[in-house]
Specification:
With 67 residues, this protein is an all-alpha fold. Helices cover 57% and strands 0% of the residues. The relative contact order is 0.06.
Length: 67
């Protein structure tokens, strides 16, 4: 049954349908930097907390609710 489902979804892979947007954007940044333009700051990523920090955050949260 699973095999027939997979076979029904098969189609020929056409690489032309897909664009490499990462490479295109990276090339733009490299060319801009090479020509002396100031690059935009990268988006800030969320930092992960260690489990100790999480425990402290939970304690503070509970303490805040008790007040």
């Amino acid at each position: 049954m699973a095999g027939s489902l997979v076979r029904s979804m098969e189609q020929k892979f056409d690489l032309k349908k897909y664009k490499d947007s990462y490479k295109r954007e990276l090339t733009k940044l490299i060319k801009a930097k090479g020509s002396g333009k100031k690059l935009p700051a990268p988006a800030k990523s969320r930092s992960t907390s260690s489990s100790d920090d999480l425990v402290e955050q939970l304690k503070k949260s509970i303490a805040g609710r008790k007040k």
